[in-house]
Amino acid sequence: MSSEKARASHLLIKHQGSRRPESWRDPDGARIKNTTKEAAIAQLRGLREEIVSGRSSFGDLASQYSDCSSAKRLGDLGSFTRGRMQKPFEDATFALKVGEISGIVETDSGVHIILRTG
Fold first, then answer.
1. What secondary structure does DSSP assign to 42-93, as a single string?
2. N- or C-end of the chain: fewer Cβ atoms within 10 A?
3. Is 68 annotated in the active site?
4. Which one of 9, 18, 66, 68 is the catalytic residue?
5. Tens-place pLDDT, residues 59-102
6. Smallest Cα–Cα separation from 4: which of 84, 112, 111, 75?
7. Which of 23, 66, 102, 109 is catalytic?
């Protein structure tokens, strides 16, 4: 296992196929159970475009829309080493340079965009 470390923030949108179809924003899962993966990806693409265009900050959108409790920290997940996150998430994070935003990343948790912060 590598000691290589990354720090990242993310914005997670859960959908019908997510392994846990509820979140802090949707405790009974009503919205998530009615969200298709395609709709989640479309929403995330729109949010990513707002960030990239400079209309909104990553943290502001993460705090409003992310289904991960890290939303309360503007999406910040802190630092982690390889082997700590789901592989697609980890691979995407470590492939980014600091300050870069990923495309859509799919994991068992849902779909994400990732901002590498360290």
1. HHHHHHHHHHHTTSS-HHHHHHHH-SSGGGGGTTEEEEEETTSS-HHHHHHH
2. N
3. yes
4. 68
5. 999 999 999 999 999 999 999 999 999 999 999 999 999 999 99
6. 84
7. 109
